[in-house]
Design brief:
The structure is a homotetramer. Chain A is an alpha+beta fold. The first copy, chain A, has 13 helices and eleven strands. In chain A, the strands form three sheets. The first copy, chain A, has a five-stranded antiparallel sheet. The longest helix of chain A is centred in the middle third of the chain and has 27 residues. Strand 8 of chain A pairs antiparallel with strand 8 of chain D, so a sheet runs across the interface.
């Protein structure tokens, strides 16, 4: 259709394409409002005619990001259609600065689709990160665990079907479905809050399953507002925050000389020196990797070949809904 | 302890008492900031010395409520500790203007406590309200349904224990626990947003289980800010909203005569007359009960005898957590 | 440009047109995301293919509005460019659920444009509504008042020019500009929160000057989402809220008889009867007009002939900025 | 009064004391909910009995701050009564995650009190920071500027008095008061959002006048939640954020060796090397001061001797309200 609104070709290209995530989930970009130019336009409160060079837009966007002037990026909005396991939805919903419409299990029958982790992702509790996974797969018990899960799901699914076929209120029938059951929603958020979501949810400390969704959404955002995305990667995602004590440590090791930065000859800080600066053992554990070799940078590019039409998922969902003959 | 902050004796009396809700849940008022006087003080932006008569405070609070001047009621804040089934938590969390800290199943082992509906509350899908219960119990299949539920829970609970005893990451082990599993959180909200929560969640269209929580919280609020509570009952909870067409209907039936209101002699509106005014069939279905006999008013008074000390629930929770011997 | 996003022809028609408001202000619709169909799509969490009849969309939207299911309307977003006096901006900014980028008086020189009320709008303090105008113009002193205002503005403007020409920091130079000085911003909000803004700001209790802006924005919204707009008019704007006591009064005057509504023969409530039901004198004052003859309904249609191109205002602003020769 | 709520002696000591800010403004801590222990309690979702050692609470709070787990700090709330010039209020109100009740110029007569900058703070536009002050006082024109300001204020004040004495609606009479006029409000915010406010508003880029308020509020917060305050200073206020390119620069100058950090012998980065890493000239300008000598740390301690009783300000305000004999 024709529009006088700002459009972005790279975003238009993926609009309405459904990208698979995990075994039954998906993310689709349904609509977007604005792009990098609209961030600039809001920052300048300009009248929107005339043209700016891309290099000027880039400079401004990077300046805004660096100085945490975040309100102009609130002027861009993205709307997604997403399908994810309930335990993922429960983490996701904690981001309150978004608009959500979730399918209702009180009103609709739910499809009996459940998330099953891949063998590689089936891991032990991490010993260091007290809430995540260790990084190595528990291969020996994987088959056994899956078989047990399948039994829970079969029983829970059969029970759900039995209850709704006996006309039990859906709001009650659903209460013993497992947290691995898929749900879906529309989710709309502005660029500023989406960056915060992505910073938290692409992080290595986030649960693997929600990271899978966040990575696809990052790829979508990269197409909607590429300069803002680049600035976010450079200043947030791949940047680090240093505390007062960490900064004090660095000041012992390097110095400013005119417009040059130079290493202080012979300077060295052993663990006890860091401790003397106020760093706890745990903080030292966290500081060293920050300064070690740079991690490889994730590109977040979408695999267009993986995208599906909406109908693909609509039919899979429909097929998984219990068939019910209500008692007369 | 001594404080110079405003206190309310009726609220102090229940502070830290844990009120049971459903079979394993609870609500406790943990802290509160301000009372009716603080709503007035904010509305007047006054210096807080001197005293006002209660009747004046009541008049102002009712005026504010009537005219939807809601910002002064944002100056009162309540903090709760709550324990509820996950499917209730999922409805509750939709109220975004609140602060939440929920127990983490990634970090902690979860107690295996599940919600079991009482026979009276085990009902068929409503034919009229498309998302709720019919109002009559499905007695015939209750025992069977409970037995089936128990099997799901036993299996899901046993599987959870098996997984964590094999050191599977907790964030994965939990994913097949049912939505009936209890969780808990701290929840903090201001008076204005709490009123909105209570309006939505004490309503007959809300799911029975969340209404049970909302009613207890209404009783707590009644003790924190009784005049604001009374105004909410009179203007919101027991008031009604009339549309333009409904109002047009009323204007055919009654008229203003000086300072009197009087019925228009012989006036009558049949269903077709209401339809001619623009009311759909469904709207007529909704209008008539609004004007029929007044419902009895719920008092929302707390039963202090039911309250428990925190330890009561803390021990029950602790006892329901799986005992785990991690493999060496 | 081509887009796969949902578009609305009536909205496209006004996109980027600047509508004058008051003597120097304006409102322009800069962008929009979604329309009525997107409210329905979110409410159904549907896949967006296939088509629905408009009558079905209308029925759903009216149902949602009537039952205050407001989250689907959060899925539509509007972005405006607005220019208004600072005292209007100060009322407007109180609506916190919006995104704002205002021109900065620390960074930019401000145009010396000031709002001057028309003779008709120059009125005495209302005796009944304790914060508004009486409704009748103070003709006798209007010319005198304007002359006095002009002197304040001339002096304040001259002083601002003097300060910035002496290189005084702009953040300081501006502090004695009057509240009537025009400012401008980009303002973005979702449909749900915009309806709330319009309910409050088109109301007769709102200050005349902000109502002038709200009325134009209502006209814009009517083009973006006409069915939602109609439902808002019917249920919110032209509806009324009745308290428990007011409802009790109505129940004395009319009754439900099967599917009919009828006036109770001979029923009459004098002021003392209303008082006995709990209505204060002030509430009676407020109730009677609600039930008297229906007010004529405002249509909120935009006058397209009044619209200007952006350049019109951009040039006027530019011309009003002080010319400054900074001291070398 | 007696309370079972958590109290903090250092906060109780200043409760209700009014601290002067600028020439006529003030900040008072009116109420608070919770302290450091409540942050911990929320993070652990604990039952609140038993005791933790302060060192454990400190460790947890620092961990939460370091890892940006901010929701537990939303469980502490502070309420302030503040009086500030309108141009300061306009910056302040941009922080939307707060509750506000401002005195209404539509309802009340406003006191004619205006902010007058001290000679030291009367400075030229900064050449580097494009929106702030240069740092050096414009002594030569200060007296002249003040005299001019006084004339604007006298005229604007006299005009306001004339208008209200002729019964002009207050909402109109006020529109030519200058932005330097003092207003006041109640303002309530949670700890997490207050930290954000303080980070932005104690910063050297914030306007001097709002920094004066932020510093006093920081001193109040230090008394309400000292461990959280200390963590904020160490990790936020005195910490720095490094971008990907800045981090790359550091990695050339120092290296991790086991548990030691050491300077790379002979390493040096000239401006062109920094540019080659992707740093713009402006970024280099910003990076060097971050790594130069540590700034002295501000303590934010309150001067209790400066505090006044509420009556002190109440009387000053009252005295500055125009005396009006309304025409009969």
């Amino acid at each position: 259709m024709e529009t006088r609104r700002p459009t972005t070709p790279a975003a238009e290209e993926i609009l309405g394409l459904y990208f698979p995530v995990l075994d039954h989930g998906f993310v689709a970009l349904v609509d977007y409002m604005g792009s990098d130019e609209d961030v600039e336009r809001a920052a300048r409160v300009s009248y929107g005619y005339g043209t700016r060079r891309t290099s000027e837009t880039r400079g401004l966007i990077r300046y805004l990001r660096r100085h945490r002037h975040t309100t102009p990026s609130e002027m861009v909005e993205l709307k997604f259609h997403c399908c994810m396991p309930i335990f993922v939805a429960r983490q996701w919903i904690r981001h309150r600065s978004a608009n959500v419409n979730e399918v209702s299990g009180r009103y609709s029958l739910l499809p009996l689709l459940f998330y099953r982790p891949e063998a590689d992702d089936f891991q032990a509790q991490s010993a260091t990160n007290r809430q995540g996974r260790s990084g190595t797969s528990l291969t020996a018990i994987y088959a056994d665990a899956i078989a047990r899960w399948e039994r829970v799901r079969e029983l829970a699914g059969a029970h759900y079907e039995w209850l709704v076929s006996h006309d039990v209120a859906r709001e009650l029938a659903r209460i013993d479905l497992p947290l691995s059951t898929y749900t879906q929603w529309y989710w709309k958020i502005d660029l500023h809050n989406l960056f915060h979501f992505l910073s938290v949810r692409t992080d290595a400390h986030a649960q693997y399953e929600i990271r899978a969704f966040a990575r696809v959404m990052a790829g979508m955002l990269k197409r909607v507002a590429p300069l803002s995305f680049e600035a976010w990667v450079d200043y947030e995602l791949e940047g680090v925050h240093l505390s007062r004590a960490e900064l004090a440590a660095l000041r012992r090791l390097l110095r400013v000389n005119g417009r040059d930065l130079e290493a202080v000859p012979g300077a060295r800080l052993a663990e006890k020196d860091l401790a003397a600066l106020g760093l706890s053992r745990r903080e030292i554990d966290e500081l060293l990797p920050k300064l070690a070799a740079a991690p490889s940078v994730e590109e977040f590019d979408l695999d267009l070949a993986a995208a599906r039409v909406p109908d693909h998922f609509a039919r899979a969902m429909e097929a998984a809904v219990p068939r019910v003959d209500r008692p007369k």
